[in-house]
Amino acid sequence: MTGSDSLDGIIREALTDVVDRSPIPPDYERLLHMEQQRSRRPVLVVAGGAVAATAAAAVVFSGGGDDTPLSTANQPTEPDRTAQDCRAIADSLFDDETDALVYLPADNPLAEVDRVTAEIRSLPYVDSITLNDQDDVLDQFRQIMVNHPLADSATAEIMPSIVEVAGSGDRTLQALVGDLAGDGAVNKLLSRDDAVEDNVRTCIANADPTGTELVTTSTAPPMTTIPPPTMDALNAVQEAVSDVLPQFSTTLSVGPGPAIANRILTFEFSGNSPGLEGQPVESLVLDVYATGTFDATELSGLETLPTQAPERAWLGADDSDLRSVYFLGTTGTAIRVASSAPDSASLLPVDELVAAAANLASHPAVISLARDLHG
Amino acid sequence: MVRDDDAEVYRKHADDLVALATTLVGPSDASDVVAAAVARTIASSGWDRVEDRYAYWVRAVYNEAKSSYRSSMRRAAREDLVARRASTTSTDVETHPEVLEAMASLSMRQRSVVYLTYWRDLPVGEVAAVLDISDGSVRRHLARARSNLRRKLT
Q: What pTM was computed for the model?
């Protein structure tokens, strides 16, 4: 018996173990009954239209107004992970031959995804490409973020697509930057190694929510105590960002990013401009944190810019790395608005960032979301 | 639109769909996932134009399994099935925690590909057709799943 045969046998045995636990199938008559009940739901003609009608119908059907997602405690869960596990998982997400990764924004039309992948495939130094569509990336996200509330609540439509590119080794990324830097349908480019390291850090922070492997001073509570946000709350914040920063695209991004302990949620919004001096469009990021992330004493020692509300403080601000931190009243959370642009002021002047962050920090949708997230 | 022979076709594949759902979400939610997926599909306006109902239900079960929130319909199904579950869920099956842990480490897509390949014995082309993805994607998901399972189980 070869090693391959042996593994096949082990997998079949494993599946037998899993499938043997299957419950009996639901009766077909029961399914028909469910379908008939569904089709009899009342349709209410009210101002606001389909959303209100659907919500009202759901209340009637479920016998109550509780729209809290049911517990997922019975789903298969991942045991505690070690850093070694995280590295193995992160390394398995991308093919070994891959040199670089091209991230395409979540809101790219399929035609744009096709165009970009075709363009990459045609480049002379590219040997092969593999497209990870939004479903694939959601799967990857859930592997990295397993047991985190967002692993359940995230959906494919908010995920980027990722093109894996195999070609000329270390030179591939550099060449891709040259060819794709001005393409508005490309969000960012990373080497495989950098992407794996990002995912390892995110996985470790998720597996070790106190952040002790990354931030030894953190004493944050476990992230598993934080309930998942509702899509309504996420949409409300996305609309708030649109109101406050109309010149930016406001795609919600909860994908893996730089791992920081206590980060609950990330919104990423990109400038609608074609990019800065030929570079890919940079983005601003709105993070929601548990306030344990920020040390009040440390903050008090940093430059503070004048703001109207006493609970707001600047962590730092300059043209190369804009950062602001706003505590959200009594919610136990803070938001942080940051820019990754090397020349942030040309993307959004400091005073406009201050105004935007202040508006978001006092926006009812943001505060409501923060309260939801932090109980 | 419900078709005359839907009941017959469903009963033919019901055990298989529940086994797939068990592989994807575990035994406790498997019935709910299948119930919601099948009820949703037979209620859809284009159902009478679906040719391969098995493949369609497999994809529906996959999509339902990865759905982020459970609908009120599934809640109703859950409540209805609670009593039956207590008497029907097998408690005497010998399970191996390391096996369940290994399967849980796979992504939903990997689990569905592994199930169709190893349990249903479908070749790559048929797995691709059922899941409506490319042959290359099937091979890639299968390779990664095998790599993960080798690491966990050998």
A: 0.39
